[in-house]
């Protein structure tokens, strides 16, 4: 799994499996920047089903409102931060 | 539900009833015993679907989700729960009396 | 909206709780299905030796002892002590611990409001809230409307709370999606230079630490 550092551009994988997932649906497929690197936490997608859960790296990713909701959104330059687990992130290229 | 259309933010506010506080306490104590985590609670809440969100209160959904996780964890059986609920219902008409305080 | 209305703690109000809200009638109305389940689940857990009645009562006492006043004390300390503020922004859990507030295993991140940046906290997936510091979240925080709209139109939501921000202020929404909990460090109001830490804390309401409000002016 790729490790990211603060400032790295990342894209949230656009997967839509059913079940308990901590990655908000509205952020899937969206590109942002790693705001900070957090600790590792047991995989909530396993914990939710009472299954053995390996530790996963958690990142705080900052998205611009324009990226999430489109240029016609309330204020495009406002931002939205969310915590995303490593398996949901892939490297993104500069725009 | 992030980003879906919705009306004004409701301004109602209330202090929690005793039974609601007990639900909250049961979540913390049962998860501290290792029977499930907050992720299991959330999974059960989400699996209840949209209708439950409209029709049940916050702590009604919580006790349902706590119960589901405890049954799944084998802490007690559905038969035990059914008998206990029947016994509780037969005690009294009100929460205070049925709970014994 | 009655968010963060100042409460008068010097008076007892008939039928009102210590925090100035009406008590919910739950003891003398008909036993609901879910209340019945709560009693049954609790008694089964006690019979099986999983928990004791004393533990349940103690847990409720612990939760009742947590209130926005704890967070307000942390904020006021950060306003007067630059070293403490630096610690709060670096490791909010450690900073709270230094003030005697045990927030348990909760991972807390403090985000600072300035003249250029306004932070607001939401949890779109459920209702994650820094409950170990501030107590239980207000009803509106758990509402569908707040959770759905704050990530998409935060300025419209803040306007409903009476907070209108200029275009020169960037709004940063924090969706509490996983293991972090958040508290906003509100900007210190002007005209508070001579105030004591306790006087400053009295200006800090719950909503200012969620970001749906700002600290009051003296």
Automatic annotation (TrEMBL), chain B:
Q: Which SUPFAM superfamilies match?
A: Electron transport accessory proteins
What would be one Pfam family of this protein? NHase_beta_N
Q: Which InterPro entries match?
A: CN_hydtase_beta-like_N (IPR049054), CN_hydtase_beta_C (IPR042262), Elect_transpt_acc-like_dom_sf (IPR008990)
Residue ranges constituting the Nitrile hydratase beta subunit-like N-terminal domain according to the UniProt record? 2-92
Protein's name in the database: Nitrile hydratase subunit beta
The scientific name of the source species is: Harenicola maris
Q: What lineage does UniProt assign to this protein's organism?
A: Bacteria, Pseudomonadati, Pseudomonadota, Alphaproteobacteria, Rhodobacterales
UniProtKB/TrEMBL annotation, chain C:
Output the Gene Ontology terms for molecular function: nitrile hydratase activity; transition metal ion binding
Q: Which Pfam families does the protein's record reference?
A: NHase_alpha
Reactions catalysed, semicolon-separated, are: an aliphatic primary amide = an aliphatic nitrile + H2O
Keywords carried by this UniProt record: Iron, Lyase, Metal-binding
Q: Which residues bind Fe(3+)?
A: 123, 126-128
Q: Which residues form a coiled coil?
A: none
What's the protein called, per UniProt? nitrile hydratase
What is the scientific name of the source organism? Harenicola maris
């Amino acid at each position: 799994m790729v490790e990211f550092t603060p400032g790295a551009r990342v894209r949230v994988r656009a997967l839509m499996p059913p079940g308990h997932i901590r990655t908000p649906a509205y952020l899937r497929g969206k590109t942002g920047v790693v705001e900070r690197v957090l600790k590792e936490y047991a995989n909530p997608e396993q914990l939710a089903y009472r299954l053995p859960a390996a530790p996963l790296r958690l990142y705080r990713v900052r998205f611009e409102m324009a990226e999430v909701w489109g240029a016609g959104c309330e204020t495009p330059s406002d931002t939205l931060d969310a915590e995303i687990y490593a398996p949901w992130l892939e490297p993104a290229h500069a725009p | 539900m992030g980003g879906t259309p919705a009306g004004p933010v409701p301004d109602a506010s209330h202090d929690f009833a005793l039974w609601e506080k007990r639900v909250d306490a049961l979540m913390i104590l049962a998860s501290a015993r290792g029977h499930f985590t907050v992720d299991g609670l959330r999974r059960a809440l989400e699996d209840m679907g949209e209708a439950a969100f409209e029709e049940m209160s916050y702590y009604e959904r919580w006790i349902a989700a706590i119960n589901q996780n405890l049954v799944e964890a084998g802490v007690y059986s559905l038969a035990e729960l059914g008998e206990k609920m029947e016994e509780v219902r037969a005690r009294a008409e009100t929460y205070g009396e049925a709970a014994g305080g | 909206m009655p968010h963060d209305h100042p409460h008068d703690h010097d008076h007892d109000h008939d039928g009102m709780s210590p925090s100035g809200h009406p008590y919910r009638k739950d003891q003398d109305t008909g036993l609901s299905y879910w209340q019945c389940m709560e009693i049954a689940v609790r008694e089964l857990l006690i019979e099986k030796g999983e928990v004791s009645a004393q533990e349940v009562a103690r847990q409720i006492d612990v939760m009742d002892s947590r209130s926005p006043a704890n967070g307000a004390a942390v904020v006021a300390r950060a306003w007067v002590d630059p070293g403490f503020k630096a610690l709060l922004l670096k490791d909010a859990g450690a900073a709270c611990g230094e003030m005697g507030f045990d927030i348990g295993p909760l991972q807390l991140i403090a985000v600072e409001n300035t003249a250029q940046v306004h932070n607001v906290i939401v949890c779109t997936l459920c209702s994650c809230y820094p409950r170990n510091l501030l107590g239980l979240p207000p009803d509106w925080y758990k509402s569908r409307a707040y959770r759905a709209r704050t990530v998409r139109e935060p300025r419209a939501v803040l306007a409903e709370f009476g907070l209108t921000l200029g275009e020169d202020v960037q709004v940063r929404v924090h969706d509490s999606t996983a293991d972090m909990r958040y508290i906003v460090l509100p900007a210190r109001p002007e005209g508070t230079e001579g105030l004591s830490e306790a006087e400053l804390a009295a200006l800090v309401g719950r909503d200012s630490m969620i970001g749906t409000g700002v600290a009051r002016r003296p």
